[in-house]
Amino acid sequence: MTEPARLVQPTKTGVVLDNLPPPRQKLDVSVYNFPDLTGQNKSNDNFAEFSRAVTQGGSSILTDVLVKAGGGAWFDVAERADLQPLLQERQIIQNTRTALQGKNAQSLPPLRFAGVLLEGGVVGYDTNETTGGVGANYLGIGGNVQYRQDIITVALRAVSVQTGRVLASVTTTKIVYSVNVSGSGFQFAAIDHLLQADVGFTKNSPATLAVREGIQLAVYSLIFEGVKTGLWEFKDPRAGDAFMRELELHQKAVVPASAAVPDAAKAS
Description:
Layout: H1 12-18, E1 27-30, H2 58-68, E2 75-78, H3 83-101, E3 116-138, E4 141-160, E5 166-190, E6 193-204, H4 207-228, H5 237-254, H6 263-267
Parallel strand pairs: 1-2, 1-3
Antiparallel strand pairs: 3-4, 4-5, 5-6
């Protein structure tokens, strides 16, 4: 029995991003590429594995996240990742019109251009950042749990098409968890006959879903940085102020105590 196909499950960051207050004006953006810059292959202890550890479809994920941001109110995304098929199809339409209507055939409207170019990529995939486990065994019966944490790092920046200036830049991380649970036991079924049983399972967080959530947080933070510097603003200032306060409180909550600047350093 196979499970039916389903939509990608929503993430907490994605839900918050999709419910952002609308901007005063939609942003025209384009994404040419959002590559895997890690160079990491899937880990395998038994043989060489040449499959990539990180999805190669970063631009498709980023485009999907941008289209849905704020319920579709924040970005107008111009197709650039697969521009050649679009240009070819437009040429076919224009040639067909010319063949049917002659020189007076109506031309297609020009392609929409973007004022902001979004660039970046998946810049890090650190495996075995944290590993550990616990187990116990008594009279041949016991179990153990092992876990591992990998970290995916995503970088995203907004570049002005007119000037080439980097308007805003953010970097986000997402942890990928892997857990293995196993147990074993034995019993003497008869003299000199030993019955042993083992059971276990492994749970791995999808790396592609982790990349998606990292990109969602990057877009969320990029909007935040742009509002702070006055690049864009919310249509409803009160709703925007509430969003900014909530995000600032969240950022302060996740900063570890060791990252605080000592008073002596502030004075210097």
